[in-house]
Amino acid sequence: MSVLNLSSQTEAAQDAGLDTEFVLTASCLDQVGIVAGVADFLSSRGFNIKEHQQFDNRGVGKVHIRTAFTTPEPISVQALEADFAAVAQRFDMNYQLRGSQPTRLLIMVSKGGHCLNDLLFRWRQGELNAEIALVVSNHEDLRQMAEGAGIPFVHVPITKDTKEQAEAKLLELIDEHEIDLVVLARYMQILSDDLTRKLEGRAINIHHSFLPGFKGARPYHQAHDRGVKMIGATAHYVTADLDEGPIIEQEVIRVDHTYDPRALSQVGRTAESQALSRAVQWHCESRVLLDGTSTVVFR
User: Fold this and answer.
1) Closest CA to 119 of 252, 298, 284
2) Of 119, 239, 249, which is closest to residue 185 (Cα–Cα)?
3) For position 1, what pLDDT does the model report?
4) What is the number of other CB atoms lying within 10 angstroms of the CB of residue 70?
5) 236 HSE (CA, 13 A, CB side)
6) Is the N or the C terminus of the chain less surrounded, counting Cβ atoms within 10 Å?
7) Which residues contact 266 (CB under 8 A, 6 or more apart)?
8) How confident is the model at residue 292 (pLDDT cuts 50, 70, 90)?
9) What is the sign of the dihedral through the CA atoms of 202, 205, 210 and 215?
10) SS in 3 state form for the chain?
11) How far apart are CA 59 and CA 41, in angstroms?
12) Which of 244, 237, 239, 245 is nearest to 193 (CA)?
């Protein structure tokens, strides 16, 4: 059979909601037989484990696992979940099964384009395991960047008086485009508590420092005034507590007294872009597991 025919069959299977590549992520209390139970479930069905990682958080007595596997014949996630339910119930697991379909992203921006530009580049290179469905902004500044990459751009202006309507529009876009993950790529608006609750675990933000330092306006001027020796950025899940959600990734770059606020800002943009892109990629590859107010990241 030709490679072309195999490719067509794979695409047809995916269009039908079937797949042969899956990732299982699970968390539960530490107990005997967890890994054996998962391995037995997979091997008894002829499934092939391609990658397995686990972390035992002995401080709280929990186990987190990530297992990537393939199936000999295409199958749906729903069928796998129904089949795996007995194992999950046995160990009281909080788990998720995902196929190889790319994660659908909605990227939110304001005027700064460095994080968006980096995400677009990595998306074009096929590094994100994601499909950028659209870019949403409260300004028009980055329309050309998004549309130049072939991505729809939606302008949703927001004021103090229109915040509720703007967030309602955002939720409509998330539903309409079947969005899996919202990425705040330097979106300079604070989301309401109600919206952050609705997006729990599926919205990532980038912050311009090691949290919670240098909050507010002109952070790099604050950093310069304090004589910092390292510039950092933090990618984290969005919660109602501003810039205090579970941290996924942090980047740090060493600087010295010769860096003025402009130079610090340039270094900061690099750190922000790198930390955010890695966090998005790891989320899209099902490598990030929430662990209370923290995360487990299987790199």
Assistant:
1) 284
2) 119
3) 46
4) 15
5) 23
6) N
7) none
8) confident
9) negative
10) CCHHHHHHHHHHHHHCCEEEEEEEEEEEECCCCHHHHHHHHHHCCCCEEEEEEEEEECCCCEEEEEEEEEEEEEEEHHHHHHHHHHHHHHHCCEEEEECCCCEEEEEEECCCCHHHHHHHHHHHCCCCCEEEEEEEECCCCCHHHHHHCCCCEEECCCCCCCHHHHHHHHHHHHHHCCCCEEEECCCCCCCCHHHHHHCCCCEEEEECCCCCCCCCCCHHHHHHHCCCCEEEEEEEECCCCCCCCCEEEEEEEECCCCCCHHHHHHHHHHHHHHHHHHHHHHHHCCCEEEECCEEEECC
11) 28
12) 239
Give dist(CA 80, CA 76) in Å, integer: 6
Is pTM beyond 0.70? Reply is yes
Separation of alpha carbons 136 and 185, rounded Å: 10
Q: What is the pLDDT of residue 189?
A: 93
Maximal C-alpha separation, the chain: 67
Look at residue 272 and tell me whether its pLDDT is greater than 80: yes
* 293 CA to centre of own chain: 16
Return the active site residues: 243
Q: What is the pLDDT of residues 135-190, one digit of tens each?
A: 999 999 999 999 999 999 999 999 989 999 999 999 999 999 999 999 999 999 99
Q: From its phi and psi, is residue 180 left (phi > 0), alpha (psi between -120 and 50) or beta?
A: alpha
> What's the one-letter identity of residue 10?
T
In which band, very low, low, confident or very high, does the pLDDT at 213 lie, cut at 50, 70 and 90?
low
